[in-house]
From TrEMBL:
Top-level lineage group: Bacteria
Species of provenance: Ramlibacter humi
Subcellular location: Cell membrane
UniProt xrefs under InterPro entries: DedA-like, VTT_dom
Entry's transmembrane regions: 28-49, 54-77, 122-144, 156-177, 189-206
PANTHER family reported for this sequence: INNER MEMBRANE PROTEIN DEDA-RELATED (PTHR30353), TRANSMEMBRANE PROTEIN (PTHR30353:SF0)
Entry keyword Transcription regulation: no
Membrane-topology annotation of the record: Multi-pass membrane protein
Alphabetical keyword list: Cell membrane, Membrane, Transmembrane, Transmembrane helix
Protein known as: VTT domain-containing protein
GO cellular-component term (any): plasma membrane
UniProt domain VTT: residue ranges: 49-174
High-level lineage: Bacteria, Pseudomonadati, Pseudomonadota, Betaproteobacteria, Burkholderiales
UniProt main location, coarse: membrane
Keyword Ribosomal protein annotated: no
Length: 217
């Protein structure tokens, strides 16, 4: 429970925790941030770590001189790309074993063929868009690996999506994070960055489900 309480507090007050870490350990903050982004995007069982809010706060800290902007963007971009590659590899390794369950309702050869066809056709957009969606950005590369999306195609969109995600949000934090209103309402902004994309995903899933039921009916 103490670990969970700390995690929630870290997510909601990531600015204060990072400032304290920089004050205590200096440039070691880059290693910490690299590790967080890599684990969030690279380990399929860790989708709850902060991503968007962390990048925004990093940008804000760069804006006031506590961190270096080019170094932060380059390192975190690298962490995001390598994390996705790790997740893809895990899915690619597990996939053939999972889809040998011929009697499974969801994990069978037909499901594999459908997933593979989807990722070959829409996988690029999915990988890029998922970067901005909590939870989805952790699972999308894993599913791409399971579905055997072409590695070269996955890597191209992994690098591009990672650049847009890290560069875009860190830059937004750099320019807007120091505004007094933003600093005053940062906790609410963090909640919005977590909840709004999540609600969009839920709404899309419900819409697809109801549409499927209507088609069957």
């Amino acid at each position: 429970m103490e670990y969970l309480a700390f995690l929630v507090d870290f997510i909601l007050h990531v600015d204060k925790h990072l400032e304290a870490f920089v004050a205590a350990y200096g440039t070691w903050v880059y290693a910490l941030l690299f590790l967080i982004i890599f684990i969030e995007t690279g380990v399929v069982v860790m989708p709850f770590l902060p991503g968007d809010s962390l990048l925004f706060v990093v940008g804000a800290m760069c804006g006031v001189g506590l961190m270096d902007y080019p170094t932060s963007v380059a390192l975190l971009w690298g962490a995001a790309v390598l994390g996705n590659q790790s997740n893809y590899t895990i899915g690619h390794y597990i996939g053939p074993r999972v889809f040998q369950w011929e009697q499974s309702r969801f994990f069978n050869r037909r499901a594999f063929d459908q997933a593979h066809a989807f990722y070959e056709k829409y996988g690029g957009f999915t990988i890029v868009a998922a970067r901005f969606m909590p939870f989805l950005r952790t699972f999308a590369p894993f599913v791409a690996g399971v579905a055997r999306m072409t590695r070269a195609k996955f890597t191209f969109f992994d690098v591009a999506g990672g650049g847009l995600w890290v560069g875009g949000i860190v830059t937004a934090g750099y320019f807007f994070g120091g505004i007094p209103w933003v600093k005053q309402h940062l906790d609410k902004i963090i909640w919005a960055m977590i909840l709004v994309p999540g609600l969009i995903v839920i709404a899309g899933a419900l819409k697809a489900r109801f549409k499927g039921q209507a088609t069957v009916a």
